[in-house]
Amino acid sequence: MLAAPINPSDLNRIEGVYPVRPPLPGAVAGYEGLGQVHALGPAVDSLSVGDWVIPSPPSFGTWQTYIVKPATAWHRVRADVPPYYPATITINPLTALRMLRDFVNLTPGDSLVQNGATSIVGQCVIQLAKLHGLHTINIIRDRPGSEEAKDKLKQLGADQVFTESQIDIKNIKTLLGALPEPTLGLNCVGGNVASVILKILRQGGTMVTYGGMSKKPVTVSTSSFIFKDLSLKGFWLQKWMSSDKAEESRKMIDYLLDLVRKGELKYEMELTPFSDFRLALDKALGKHGSQPKQVLMF
Ligand SMILES: NC(=O)c1ccc[n+]([C@@H]2O[C@H](COP(=O)([O-])OP(=O)(O)OC[C@H]3O[C@@H](n4cnc5c(N)ncnc54)[C@H](OP(=O)(O)O)[C@@H]3O)[C@@H](O)[C@H]2O)c1
């Protein structure tokens, strides 16, 4: 392996709170990453030694130096982007892409609202939305460095970015300015800021929950259903992939890597040598305050 990120779901799996648990004993953590072919079995003609490959669909055990798997478990990618992009392209960017396509029929000029906008998913949503002529209203949490984080998201193409405390729920129209009321809401966080999304959504809009970073439940007012007729849905990439989408997901990964190559998709990461994995884990757990995505380099 060359590189593998620490994603929130990796931590949840280790904590034993994720619905899918790797078989014990001998489980190795890590669910996506980039490898380089080191050796081939005699019957393999689809790959060559030296190729860059990613496990596709993603699978357990990327936080290790050597992995042995059938050739069909690997998707070859071009070695012309920084290695940390193919290492991280599957779980978060693909989730962003699917959520923009699968729930609401969005057309250029429409807008969407999301919380957790500083996450990799959130950063990808902003850029993919912009590429399709969609506007984004973004909510981030109040924390040291939030003004700088707002600027970074605007540079990625965010139309509006607010911290949670800047949202005046009674004045949504002023908040939106010239933007149309959003039809799609993406909920990464849960708790109060999920309710904020419900307030900002237009009549008949849809909120898709894909993360629960606050570890707080989603609370929905009765009026959200009766008077606004909102729909609440969930997205789970692992389920989407298990429904016979292997080929389609590889095409989308190639599409996303093409955007990286063209400079149209980027996101913030911090690279850490595997020898410092304890520090990277602490950072991913939030013990050093807010930190960029940690990527282990082997
Ligand atoms: N359902 C699926 O299929 C699927 C697929 C991919 C990802 N996900 C989920 O999507 C979420 C984002 O993943 P990611 O890898 O893109 O995230 P990430 O890049 O690791 O970033 C973590 C995000 O969570 C925020 N955060 C951390 N602790 C928080 C707290 N206590 N309250 C509120 N916000 C908090 C961070 O905000 P700051 O910038 O302020 O620190 C940041 O925006 C995770 O919940 C992940 O499990 C789900």
TrEMBL record:
Residues 9-296 form the Enoyl reductase (ER) domain. This is enoyl-[acyl-carrier-protein] reductase. Belongs to the zinc-containing alcohol dehydrogenase family. Quinone oxidoreductase subfamily. It holds the Pfam family ADH_zinc_N. PANTHER family: ENOYL-[ACYL-CARRIER-PROTEIN] REDUCTASE, MITOCHONDRIAL. Keywords: Fatty acid biosynthesis, Fatty acid metabolism, Lipid biosynthesis, Lipid metabolism, Mitochondrion, NADP, Oxidoreductase, Transit peptide. One of its GO terms (molecular function) is enoyl-[acyl-carrier-protein] reductase (NADPH) activity. One of its GO terms (cellular component) is mitochondrion. Its EC number is 1.3.1.104. Homodimer. CDD domains: ETR (cd08290). It catalyses: a 2,3-saturated acyl-[ACP] + NADP(+) = a (2E)-enoyl-[ACP] + NADPH + H(+). SMART domains: PKS_ER (SM00829). SUPFAM superfamilies: GroES-like, NAD(P)-binding Rossmann-fold domains. InterPro entries: ADH-like_C, ADH-like_N, ER, GroES-like_sf, Mito_Enoyl-ACP_Reductase, NAD(P)-bd_dom_sf. One of its GO terms (biological process) is fatty acid biosynthetic process. Its main location: mitochondrion. It is found in: Mitochondrion. It is an enzyme of class 1 (oxidoreductase). It comes from the Eukaryota.
